[in-house]
Amino acid sequence: MESPADEAAPQTVAAVDLGSNSFHMIVVRAEGETHHVVDRLKEPVRLAAGLTPDGGLSEAACESALACLARFGQRLAGLPGDHVRVVGTNTLRRARNADDFIDRAGRVLGHPVEIIYGAEEARLIYGGVVRDLGRERPRRLVVDIGGGSTELIIGEGGEPELVESISLGAVVQMQRFFPDGRVTRKSWRAAVLDARLTLEPIARAYREAGWDMAIGSSGSIKSILRAAGDDADGGEITPAHLRSLARRVIKAGRVDALSLPGVSEARSAIFPGGLAVLTAVFESLGVKAMSVSDKALREGVVADLLGRLHDRDIREQGVRSAMARYHVDAAHGERVAATALGLFGDSAPPGFERFAGRMLRWAALLHEIGLLIAHKGYQKHGEYILGHADLQGFSRNDQRLLAALVRLHRGRFREDRIAALPTEWQALARRLAVVLRLAVILHRGRDPAAAPPVRLGAGETGVQLFCAADWLNRRPLTRADLAREAEQLGRVGIGLQTAAD
Predict the structure, then answer these.
(1) Above 70 in pLDDT, residue 1?
(2) I need a surface site. Which of 70, 93, 101, 166 has the fewest CB within 10 A?
């Protein structure tokens, strides 16, 4: 745990947002609660426009994106790995060949790319937008219209309550309804109607939840405010502004004929798509006015990253919420976690110490999450839950690792679950899985007073578990479990020996 003095020491961190329309990077120097932006980069990559009919990213789109990331990578050179977080959003969630792209992107950037789920993207956006807002009018609706998805969040103060990410985006609506850049009254109405139909399943819940103020946070919404010009008194967008802009877009007839104040040519190319989505949001939710924030996902990522560095990892809250939702035996999980961490000790590979310890602990806390479904094969149920649930703070790969560890904590050691993880995690995941399996065996009796006097020695091809002889002699079932475990691990080439200590 860091001291208050450590936490107040200046730190430089960076967040990179690989959005569906633009890539953004922000570099921040943090001193306590004060954050100073020292660098900010943005490039209109249009990743969503590079999706092919079969759902993959075209090579041209990949090359353009990688060229941008190479430039970003120059700025990130020299920053420690745990001071940088790179997140991919809707298009990378959808792309069939996303894993190949993020592998290439990680090599170019010098930092791994995480694909985050829609709910996590929404949470981070909300955290970025509300960080600098005061307590006045604390109940907020935050709307972010990206290239491929729209996030809607209602929260009280700093806590999100309703979180949704829906498949509506400025680039996607352009492709579907204005593919050749032409805008007619008919295509405009179709685009708005389609967006309203997509919003319909959530609209009632949002209207009933209510809010004190609505805030827009994306490039599309900022461009709409600029396009409204002097009409937008007080820096707010109203339904009248949206109607006026719609008339101007339809009158222009084509995006290349649009001339809107403060809107670049690149932004004009997708302006009708973003305007249609925001119009639908106003109409479906009954929004009367919306202010605009210059904060967004990347500021939320920075705040989250700083929390991780100072042991305020929001993922802990996500794990606790999942434990409560699935009625996990928390006391037993804590005992297994304590033993697992003790066995793992200082053997984490360099650069993975903090990451490995946290992941091992969370996997131990959640290893019985599948019991709510059924005892038989509960590790399989747990794997499914953790692979698909919205866990606050976790990226898709984080959840894949947790799911794999939970699947592997008992039964046959499935090497395919290790092989499905990022290459650089595989050796670590195998070691974590072995440690978790041993910790679960040592606590199989579920004795609250049991603190197994054990330690672990690691060799090139396996591990040696040292147990206090009298402790193990009094537990013949544990001895039998360990013998059976040695057979299980031996089948995949992992040696396990038990010795008196």
Answers:
(1) no
(2) 70
